[in-house]
Amino acid sequence: MRVLFASLASVGHTYPLIPLAIAARDAGHEVHFAAGEGVHAPLAANGLRPFRPADSFYEIYAEDLEPELARLRPDLVVHEWGLPGAAVAAHRAGIPGIWHGFGRMVPAGIGFELPTSNAEAGGRPHLDICPPSLQDKDFLATGNRIELRPVPYSTPGPLAVLPRLDSGPDSKPLIYLTLGTAFGTPELLSTTLGGLAALDARVVVATGRVDPELLGDVTDQVTVRTWWPQADLLPHVDVVVHHGGSGTTLGALTVGAPQLILPQGADQFANAEAVSAVGAGVRLLPGELSAEAIAEQTRKLLPRQGNTIHRDAARAIAEEIARMPSPDEVARRLPEYAQPD
What we know:
By secondary structure, this protein is of the alpha/beta class. The chain has 2 domains: 163 residues, Glycogen Phosphorylase B (Rossmann fold, 3-Layer(aba) Sandwich), CATH 3.40.50.2000; 161 residues, Rossmann fold (3-Layer(aba) Sandwich), CATH 3.40.50. Helix content is 35%, strand content 15%. The protein has 14 helices and 13 strands. The protein has a 7-stranded parallel sheet, sandwiched between helices. Strands 10-9-8-11-12-13 form a 6-stranded parallel sheet, sandwiched between helices. The mean pLDDT is 91.
């Protein structure tokens, strides 16, 4: 069977699809991946045959993909929530398609067309990687969902400080700070790092698009880089402090790490609310941010301070995620969804 995956050309939208695409490849299916060139390197490294439809850079519109559908003639199109154009193109071509989520169902009013409301392809099934206890309740009640375990993916890279990450009875807790690739600013990173510096903990920081030099001097307990192989790093951390992006939110939950979420935009406020509601973390809204507040809230999440409530809640979600069907299991079922409507 020939399967075409399609996503926006960003880490947050492409990486959630890669585990299933790899599993489909390993199951013997011929896999192609439509996306802008910015994400071609990891796709090519995994043998997923990436290509750029038409002149698309980030977004892919229906007219961009229609000639490629005629060329490839896939049996199934897996299109992520951020690409309604791909869903429309597949629908018009009479090719079965499946929506692929990247977290909680996106809330209205953040600039995305809700996939559940798409006039031409809204009724198609959804591969849902969000554990039900965090998923939008209306979507749980009405969506045509196929559960799929979220598997953190990041471009492989060395953890040069891995010996420092080893945990032990006498080691200090490890905090991971990231504000993603779109919402981080030197001011917010510096404020957050100032709060974390007040704790007796080691801190690793991913600055994203922010030049690490703008953070100034840091203590020996802080390691700053523009990027970390997040999927490899997360199993070592005690607390994750981040912006509330879906990938980091689910990644932290997958390893049972409590999280402090500092939402800045997009779906981050909804993610922060959901994580707080189940007790797996806490949030600070923009008007509440200060170094002191960050130190206070992070201290509550450190289990070695005697409070294990948030860690236990995060671990319960991790167990729920582990029970969800794996990419390999779902890949074996893909031929069922390639049947014409």
